[in-house]
Amino acid sequence: MINFLQAAPIEPQPGFMQQYSFIIMIGLMVLVLWLFMWRPESKRRKQMQEFRNSLKKGDKIITAGGIYGVVKEIKESTLLIEVDGNVTLRIDKNMVVADNSDLQRQ
Fold it and tell me: Mean pLDDT throughout 27-53?
C-alpha cells in the first residue's frame, strides 16, 4: 500500500552565492584583464599616436626595424627620413617607435 501522506524529501535551495558564483568569477576575471592589460595598452597606444602626430622636420627617430634616421618630409601617413648622407627612405608613420634624442641623453 502506498502512503500518499508521505511527501517527497525537500531539497535545500542553493544560496545566492552558489547559484551565481560562476558568473561572478567570470566578471572578476574580465575586470582584472581590463585593469592590468587593456587599459595600460590603450594608454600606451594613445601616447604613441600623439608622439607620431607631433613629429616635425629634423626630429631624430628610430623605426620598428631598428633604422635610425632624421625626418626630412612629413605627409599624412608617410615620412621621408634621411638615413645616411643622401640615402633617404619613405616609411609608414606607424613604424616610428622612438625618439632618438631621448635615448642619447641617457
Answer: 90
Measured CA distances, 56 to 8, 61, 71 (Å): 82, 11, 7
DSSP, res 37: I
Residues 68, 100: contact at Cβ < 8 Å?
Answer: yes
Q: How far apart are CA 63 and CA 90, in angstroms?
A: 11
Read off the pLDDT of residues 2-35 as tens digits, 9 standing for 90 and up. Answer: 555 565 566 666 666 677 888 888 999 999 988 8
Rg (CA), the chain: 30
> What are the Cα distances from residue 12, in Å, to 4, 7, 9, 15, 18?
22, 15, 10, 9, 12
For residue 94, give the DSSP letter. Answer: G
Give the separation between CA 68 and CA 3, rounded to whole angstroms: 92
- Is the pTM for the entire model greater than 0.85? no
